[in-house]
Specification:
The chain is α+β, with helices and mostly antiparallel strands and 130 residues long. Helices cover 24% and strands 32% of the residues. The protein has a single domain, classed as 2-Layer Sandwich (60s Ribosomal Protein L30, Chain: A). Helix 1 packs parallel to helix 2.
Length: 130
């Protein structure tokens, strides 16, 4: 049976979804819903860099709620609105993940569900139960 995760440090979903869904055993598999650059109060950051940092904060919060960390990430899918935003996002991703290199897809999109959001990242993590 899956476990649906909505950490207190994130804004509650406004629709019928959860921030994360964990499966297991024998392995713990976590699917992370697309995270945007909004804080716990739903306030969207200013600019792509600030929003990207918040996205990674939110991803880490979902991972922690499943007793996982960034090193358990196996896949990221990045949706970016600004066509010139690739270098900013890659620099932040590389710094936040350090030497960890999960599979990754990077897509430019014309818009996200909230027009104030410039980036959305979804992920998948897998680890053994601890």
């Amino acid at each position: 049976m899956p476990t649906f995760l909505n950490p207190n440090s994130l804004a509650m979903p406004r629709s019928s979804f959860s921030h994360g869904v964990m499966h297991g055993p024998p392995l713990k598999r976590l699917l992370i819903s697309g995270q945007v650059g909004a804080n716990r109060n739903g306030e969207v950051g200013h600019g792509l860099a600030e929003q990207t940092e918040t996205v990674f904060d939110n991803i880490e919060a979902v991972l922690r709620s499943a007793d996982m960390g960034l090193l358990d990430l196996v896949k990221l899918t990045i949706f970016c609105v600004p066509l010139d935003g690739g270098a900013i996002v890659r620099d932040i991703r590389d710094r936040r993940l350090a030497t960890h290199r999960p599979a990754s897809s990077f897509l430019y999109v014309s818009a996200l569900a909230n027009p104030a959001c410039l980036i959305e990242i979804e992920g998948e993590a897998i680890c053994e139960f601890r």
